[in-house]
Amino acid sequence: MDALSSEKQVVLVVSSASPLVNLDSLELRKIYLGFNVRRNGNVIRGFRNTEDKVLNGVFLQYVVAMSAKSYNKRLLSLTLRQGIPRSSEYNSIEKLQDALSERPYSVSYMWKEDAERSTKVKALRVLWYQN
Fold it and tell me: What total of structural domains would you count in the chain?
């Protein structure tokens, strides 16, 4: 039995048809901070999962390592100075899974239980877990 099975986990997810197999923490952070990360000539886009406050807190602390205020300032600055659009945000798992399915070079994060229930996404790795 998986030692982490009884713990709450957040996983990095992609479309089940995605060719992406791994992204390290630095690449993931760059994606959400507006930098271009490419695989096979395609820019990887990060989609925000805003379904609940705990998930958002995990994202801010463990993915971008910034406070909400600092992260929002960073995104606003990128938009105003360089014209870089903000990451798309989804407040429903179904809409997020549909968006990931439409873009094989996109990533997001969700609770492991949600990823396991879906045929539209696959988990690449655990981003965070709580006992």
Answer: 1
